[in-house]
Amino acid sequence: MYADSHLVVTRTRSPLGCASRARSTRRTPAPWAEFLGHGLAGADDIHLDMSGLSFCDVSGIRSLIEAAESREQGRLLLHGLPNLLQKVMIATGWANLPHLVVVS
User: Fold this and answer.
1) Is pLDDT of 97 > 90?
2) What are phi and psi of 95, to 5 degrees?
3) How far apart are the C-alpha atoms of 51 and 97, rounded to whole Å?
4) Does residue 62 contact residue 90 with C-beta atoms inside 8 Å?
5) Of the candidates 65, 59, 66, 48, the residue with the CA atom closest to the CA atom of residue 10
6) Rounded to whole angstroms, how far apart are CA atoms 89 and 5?
């Protein structure tokens, strides 16, 4: 789906969503956000495997939040978040958004 020297995003079919590997930086979240916002617009739940992500800056986190906030139905389920990223999501209250689920 997307690959550069910092980020590789592959689409998954079961469960429906995508998996991210390497590191997300300020330069790379646009394809990710595009996929989340438009690639699966009609899907109920979208699963994101974040276990291969070693770093995600605030713009990458914002792309996740914006994708969750723009959903009219279903949820964005984040699997395998690195511990630090999970703590940030909980501390900011983003883990409590209606269409976002941080899966432990």
Assistant:
1) yes
2) -70, -10
3) 21
4) no
5) 48
6) 26
CA angle 3, 9, 14 (to 5 degrees): 145
Listed residue (11, 1, 96) closest to 46, CA to CA: 11
* pLDDT at res. 54: 79
User: What is residue 91's predicted lDDT score, i.e. its pLDDT?
Assistant: 93
- The owner of tokens 């394809």 is 31
Q: Which amino acid is at 6?
A: H
Say what the pTM is.
0.79
Q: Given a cut of 80, is residue 42 above it in pLDDT?
A: no
- Which one, of 20, 15, 10, lies nearest residue 77 by Cα? 15
Which residues, 6 or more positions from 26, have their beta carbon under 8 angstroms from its beta carbon?
57, 59, 60
**d(C-alpha 40, C-alpha 43), whole Å:** 5
List pLDDT tens digits, range 48-79. Answer: 888 888 778 787 788 888 888 888 888 889 99
∠ Cα 104 52 46 (to 5°): 60
